[in-house]
Amino acid sequence: MRTPEEALAAARRQAQARRLAEPELGRAPSDQDLLLEAREASLKQLTRWAMIEPEELEVYSTRRLGAPITALKRLLIRLLRQYLVQMSAQQSRFNAYVVGYLVAMDERIRALEEARDGGAGPEPETVEELPHP
Amino acid sequence: MKVNQILCAAGFPDAVTNQMLAWREVFKQWGWKGADFGARIEPDMRHHGIRPLRQLEAQDELVLVHYSGYARDLERVFSGPARTVLLSHNVTPEEWFWPVDPADAVRCRLGREQLHEFARLADGLAGVSSYNAEELSEASGREARVIPVLFDRSSLASPGSSANGGAEPGRPPPTILFVGRLTPHKRQDLVIQAFAAYWRMQPEARLVLVGHALSPAYRQKLVSLAEELAPGAVSFRARLTSAELADQYRSADVFLCLSEHEGFCIPILEALHYGIPVVARDAAAVGEVVGDAGILVGAQDDAQTIAELLWIVVSDHELRQELCRRGERRLAAYDHQLTAQRMRSLLADLAP
């Protein structure tokens, strides 16, 4: 009888043999890592998220037979639209400033790293010199 | 004795909320008094007797805090006169969430900072796993006990006939199962990749991922990956009833968990209860929970190795039986009475 420990050893051997026979299988799982892919895109994503646009359709009731409550919630949103638009604008402005600051810092760090590594990178721009987003 | 309990966030489906309610039932059986509170409470929870934290009047009582995430209002509990016990259910490290949901990442960061701060202030410390307890010990410089999750097998459906060994004619197709919220640290993306490698060897195979998603966008990413690598073979299920979840376990051939961070992972115990062989990544508290009852893979084991392992576990009947036997033995370590006694001992030691 094969023990669990022997099963893992057998699986490793079989995988190795299969990789030798079919080299295209040798790719490690991390090659298609969603997380890494997402990390690379994070600053871009952050910029997208900065401008908030609350979606009315996402306001709904989770209760059973909650349609009337959903309708009431959406009506309230419409009645408060002036206030909500003002609040969203304030939040978006703050978010945009923060993202602008981050982008500037990111560029500055890259430039400094390039300069440190001996590359002729662009002169680091100071955060203060950036135009307002 | 009177023990109040506090949750950071009360809602369903939530393992920590279930734990607090289960502990309340145990306390009632012991004749202990007290009430349950939540720093944040989902509207659906009001029928479960969980009160807003602001209603807690902490006098000379014992407060058991089930910590699982940042809650600003908890600060007054630890600075008040009540004796406090901090039970850590773990907070996921922030780095898993930055790329997917920065707001969650911020909450995780604040939560971990707060957990360490509370560890220094609490009168008693415990983690649901050694992994969690060690974190508290490091933060506080004091001993933290291990009180596992309260696992009540009698509340689960009967195991039924497991060990499908689905590769033979006339049997249902081999089914690989994972149960857990669709989040980056649970690595359903790796589960899909490993399954896809297995599916190339066994095209009848099916993968079932049970759990609600961190966000619709993250779910869509996983769905797209599944459609690309194993079209039509992966199904996503959420909001299952207990009976439906039991059916998923009973129809599975292997429970595959490749999480990189778990403070405990109750579905592993559920899989052992239903007699499903467990293949899991030895990360965070997972190895400790699985023990020798499953097959633990390492970070070096790629999708192809895991696929070969799935093939072996699905098709080797004797191996499956051995894993079932070990699973039964492993569950004894999480016996309901044993865990309850550990909690009783901790609370009795700290009672005012």
Provide an overview of this structure.
- The complex is a heterodimer of chains A (133) and B (352).
- Chain A is an all-alpha fold and 133 residues long.
- Chain A folds into 2 domains: 1-31; 33-129, no CATH class.
- Chain A is built from 5 helices and no strands.
- In chain A, helix 3 (42-50) runs antiparallel to helix 5 (81-116).
- Chain A is flat and about 70 Å long.
- Mean pLDDT of chain A is 78; it is low at 28-32.
- Chain B is α/β, with parallel strands linked by helices and 352 residues long.
- Chain B has 2 domains: 3-150 and 335-350, Glycogen Phosphorylase B (Rossmann fold), CATH 3.40.50.2000; 154-332, Glycogen Phosphorylase B (Rossmann fold, 3-Layer(aba) Sandwich), CATH 3.40.50.2000.
- Chain B has 12 helices and 13 strands.
- Chain B has helices at residues 15-29, 75-79, 102-121, 130-140, 188-201, 216-229, 242-250, 266-273, 286-290, 303-315, 317-332, 336-350; strands at residues 3-10, 36-41, 50-52, 62-67, 83-88, 124-127, 145-146, 175-179, 206-210, 234-237, 254-257, 278-281, 295-297.
- Chain B has a 7-stranded parallel sheet, sandwiched between helices. Chain B has a 6-stranded parallel sheet with strand order 10-9-8-11-12-13, with helices on both faces.
- In chain B, helix 3 (102-121) crosses helix 4, helix 5 runs parallel beside helix 6 and helix 5 (188-201) packs across helix 10.
- The interface between A and B is large, with 32 and 39 residues.
The main sheet of chain B orders its strands as: 3-2-1-4-5-6-7
Helices and strands of chain B, in N-to-C order? Answer: EHEEEHEHEHEEHEHEHEHEHEHHH
The main sheet of chain B comes to: 7 strands, parallel
Oligomer: heterodimer
